[in-house]
């Protein structure tokens, strides 16, 4: 029997009384400068409760599919975890995170001075697709530019408002420079506690320390190809990841879309269904699962 934990259950950990009772701090929302379809910012308060429930506060958290790291940066900011290892195999995204952590000033300069229009969109799309001739910060900024100007933040999608720039929402509507630079400065202030890697997630999981907590949010089974294009998984890769994860005697927690393949791969582990509906192209896609290694427990209300 799989316990169903609905959205109100997950949201309740942000409730003032529940937080007070459990000694949970209020986490900073929207820390990530990146937009991510299926981004896990809304999960941060639950992750904090999960960490406290399992007495893992102060641990190193490893996020092998980090994307915008929206769910885990607030944990570091609040001191719930001591260090954060973020990893993503997307080369443009990797250049962005490396630039943020090691070349902050130049990245900020590029954000501050760029003009947000279709000509530049084409220019940065070319850089993203042909990165060889460009520096790390140029590629990182190009990835950031596309993430902020494309539909749903998807790197391979078209610009908001289309190439003709028509409609109520245009290319610059998600590009509030002041706010985005603030977020980048804030994350850079935590850089001594952040390690970025750009390796295959299986390798990152295998090489992580025995006492770290792995929080993995792999590409979705159903919508993965539409959202992450070449950085998605086929069934065999989902299976390989499940073998990697299940062979660990480490602490791990996974979020996934609620599809039969994932039930088959992880039955026997502690599967909990949570209703975290996510929205793609205005269509409600589905529920998500939270799966934890069987020796960890989900926080109860
Ligand atoms: C579901 S997203 C993560 C979203 C993230 N949790 C957030 O809140 O922004 C999955 C990420 O996995 C990355 N990815 C895909 N295959 C990978 C692999 N083999 N190793 C590491 N990262 C991979 C993709 O580039 C994508 O950014």
Could you characterize the architecture of this molecule?
There is one protein chain. The longest helix is centred in the middle third of the chain and has 14 residues, at 136-149. This protein is 39% helix and 16% strand. It folds into two domains: 4-88 and 201-292, Vaccinia Virus protein VP39 (Rossmann fold), CATH 3.40.50.150; 94-186. By secondary structure, it is α/β, with parallel strands linked by helices. Bound molecules: S-adenosylmethionine. Residues 36, 38-40, 64-65, 67-68, 70-71, 87-90, 200-201, 217, 219, 228, 231 line the site of S-adenosylmethionine.
From the structure above, extract its key features.
13 helices, binds S-adenosylmethionine, 8-stranded mixed β-sheet
Uncertain segments of ≥5 residues (pLDDT<50)? 277-284
Helix and strand string, N-terminal first?
EHHHEHEHHHHHEHEHHEHEE
Instruction: Walk across the major sheet and give the strand order.
Output: 1-7-8-6-5-2-3-4
The CA-CA distance between the termini, in Å, is 19 Å
User: Any guess at the CATH architecture of the largest domain?
Assistant: 3-Layer(aba) Sandwich
Mean pLDDT: 90
Main sheet?
8 strands, mixed
Bound molecules: S-adenosylmethionine
Radius of gyration: 19 Å
CATH topology of the largest domain: Rossmann fold
Q: What is the overall number of helices?
A: 13
């Amino acid at each position: 029997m799989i316990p169903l934990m609905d959205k109100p259950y997950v949201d309740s950990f942000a409730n003032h009384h529940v937080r007070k009772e459990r000694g949970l701090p209020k986490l900073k929302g929207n820390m990530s400068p990146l937009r991510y379809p299926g981004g896990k910012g809304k999960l941060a308060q639950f992750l904090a409760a999960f960490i406290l429930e399992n007495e893992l506060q102060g641990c190193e958290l490893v996020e092998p599919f980090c994307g915008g790291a929206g769910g885990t940066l607030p944990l570091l900011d609040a001191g719930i975890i001591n260090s954060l290892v973020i990893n993503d195999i997307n080369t443009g995204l990797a250049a962005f995170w490396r630039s943020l952590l090691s070349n902050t000033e130049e990245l900020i300069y590029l954000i501050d001075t760029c003009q947000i229009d279709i000509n530049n969109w084409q220019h940065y799309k070319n850089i993203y697709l042909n990165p060889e001739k460009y520096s790390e910060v140029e590629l990182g900024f190009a990835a950031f530019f596309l993430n902020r100007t494309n539909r749903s933040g998807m790197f391979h999608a078209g610009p908001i408002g289309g190439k003709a720039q028509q409609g109520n929402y245009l290319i610059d509507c998600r590009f509030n420079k002041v706010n985005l630079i603030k977020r980048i400065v804030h994350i850079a202030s935590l850089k001594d506690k952040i390690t970025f890697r750009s390796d295959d997630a299986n390798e990152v999981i295998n090489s992580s320390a025995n006492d770290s907590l792995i929080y993995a949010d792999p590409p979705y089974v159903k919508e993965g190809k539409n959202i992450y294009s070449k950085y998605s998984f086929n069934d065999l890769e989902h299976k390989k990841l499940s073998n990697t994860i299940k062979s660990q005697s480490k602490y791990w927690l996974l979020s996934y879309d609620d599809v039969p393949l994932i039930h088959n791969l992880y039955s026997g582990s502690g599967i909990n269904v949570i209703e975290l509906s996510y929205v793609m192209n205005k269509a409600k896609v589905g529920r998500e699962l939270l799966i934890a290694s069987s020796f960890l427990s989900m926080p109860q209300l």
